[in-house]
């Protein structure tokens, strides 16, 4: 399995367009369930209904084909709440719309100031790696754009997640490595992408186990606070468990058919995201990081 962020939406053959789409989607890839009603964000497009992240992709694809300059830093720097609400029109107002406007305004301003308004100029100025003495794409994303700096403080210790930044690198690798345009050189340094669905998968498989109290709170859709012990531990154990699972899988696979953690992540995510509406609820945290 791969996990290209484009999914079924074709942004054309030009690598720059794929980079722009991937970076924009990565910037906004969070919070698709209304925190009050529990309703999912959905939209109708190309003859079917899309939900959650795929609904976001669909609306971006539709805006792009409709000649909205959705990838342009100048447009992003000035986009307003009404404008973005119209772009992401769906079954409900997309959750955390105000935060999405703020994120795009901040990102757009940096793109205009440093990269001639283009995501692809940013990517081409970095080493195609997570880490490269400060010049890896993940390092640059997290240092130049606060929205990608996904860290938490756990009793005085900094815990680094960087979910969206890592997913961005993996998505670019999947989409472009076959073309020779972009290939991540240190895939073995990527972790799982700790979100809402992966913990559901790991718990359903009996790999993760919640306390009775936490299970009750999740089942009741009680908000789990951002940076609380519970939220940090859910995400941390998700990363660790997926790493152990990957090691166990590779122990029984031929040497020439080893997998990396993002591949296992995608297999779990794709399977349990499809099943999750009828399986069990995921934890709810009001955050822009996943």
Shape: globular
Count of discrete alpha- or pi-helical segments spanning 4 or more residues: 12
Largest sheet composition: 2 strands, antiparallel
Helix content: 40-55%
The portion of residues forming beta strands comes to 5-15%
User: Could you give the count of β-strands?
Assistant: 4
Strand order, largest beta sheet: 1-2
Number of domains: 2
* H/E series: HEEHHHHHHEEHHHHH
Report the C-alpha radius of gyration, rounded: 18 Å
Averaged pLDDT, please?
Answer: 95
What does this 3D model show about the protein?
The protein is mainly alpha-helical and about 290 residues long. It folds into 2 domains: about 10-125, no CATH class; about 190-290, no CATH class. Helix content is about 50%, strand content about 5%. The protein contains 12 helices and 4 strands; from the N terminus they run H-E-E-H-H-H-H-H-H-E-E-H-H-H-H-H. It has helices at about 15-30, 55-65, 75-80, 80-85, 95-115, 120-125, 135-145, 165-175, 195-205, 210-220, 230-250, 260-280; strands spanning about 40-45, 50, 150-155, 155-160. The protein has a two-stranded antiparallel ribbon with strand order 1-2. It has a two-stranded antiparallel ribbon with strand order 3-4. Strand 3 (about 150-155) and strand 4 form a beta hairpin. Helix 1 runs antiparallel to helix 8 and helix 9 crosses helix 12 (about 260-280). The chain is globular and about 50 Å long. It starts with 14 loop residues before the first helix and ends in an 11-residue tail after the last helix. The model has no long low-confidence stretch (mean pLDDT about 95). Belongs to the QNG1 protein family. GO terms for molecular function: hydrolase activity. This is Queuosine 5'-phosphate N-glycosylase/hydrolase. It comes from marine metagenome. Keywords: Hydrolase.
